[in-house]
Amino acid sequence: MQLNVFSGNRGEIGEAHGRTHAALITHSLEVYDRLFRDFVGIGWDEARTAAERFLPMIERGFPAILDEMDGIARGAGLELGDIVTLNCRSEISLTQASGGCTAFSLNRDGRQWLAQNWDWRTDQLHNVVALELRPEDAPALVSVGEAGMVAKIGLNDRGIGVCLNAIRSRTCGEGLPIHVALRKILEAETFDRAVRVATQDRVCAPAHFLIAGGVGQATGFEVHPGLPGVLEPRGGTVTHTNHLYAETATCQVEDFPRPDSRPRLARIDRLLRDRLPLGEPIEAGALFEILADHEDAPLSICRHFNPDQSPEERMETLFAVVMDLTAGRLSLRHGKPCESDDVLEVHLPRDTRHSGEA
């Protein structure tokens, strides 16, 4: 996979993104048109109408990102409403559809790691892009996600990183859409500012954000329109799959996880304990091996085609990412981590001038 680097003001970055990935963005719209029909029973035009309710929330919480969305639309030859709908696809569809995803943070020997598999519909595999963005008014960042979307999983040059777990729930209220909130986190200059996106801006639909900083902080936030559930590290780790388990969240939100979510969480906890003993050095390759685990297949951490599931329910691992936030390094395997030997390595040197670390 190729890394695309875009810089300039918001509109310029968006237009370059849209122009470079126009074909992939158009294909993403087709994928989500099918998904909305499969899970929600609406077509693209109806989804665009549903997405309009999120515009005032974005205008209040992160207005600058609308300039970038408008640029993406302009570059791809689409309308702003199409790009807003694409970036609000979780809020429109996750009442019925949920992905997989297994994520963890690990603090060991002075290094802060973040890692996860992203599991989703196979028809989005070739719409995955890796972007390095250098806005004039925000930290440089790297995001791995879907073409046409403003962010998903990544890190910035202040040592802040974030991972995502989807949560299936019927809850949707006031706050930032999930992927817009992820981008705001990736523009945070400090860990505390990143945390404030989850705790003060709030997020209008449930998800889990695993936020970490290069100097050793990591906390999981089970976000939703209310006060998020908070998951502090235990033994230097935070782990999460696709169900809520912090009491602050579970007492406010009802979720509907797939049957494999709890077994995957137990499995990732065991693997981190058994395969990474204290005192031994850790490299990205060892974390990719954990993400390639197949116990309980086909409902394993590394997910493959499952013929026993209905076509619209099939989820497979589309990429695996390992981030060394202390070093400012992101490693990406596009496709299943057990099959892909081609690793994209991105190094984003830490800028400590504004982070309070200098």
UniProtKB/TrEMBL annotation:
Superkingdom: Bacteria
A Pfam family it matches: AAT
Gene3D superfamilies for this protein: 1.10.10.2120, Penicillin V Acylase, Chain A
Segments forming domain Peptidase C45 hydrolase: 107-337
Protein name (database record): Peptidase C45 hydrolase domain-containing protein
Organism the protein comes from: Halomonas beimenensis
Organism lineage string: Bacteria, Pseudomonadati, Pseudomonadota, Gammaproteobacteria, Oceanospirillales
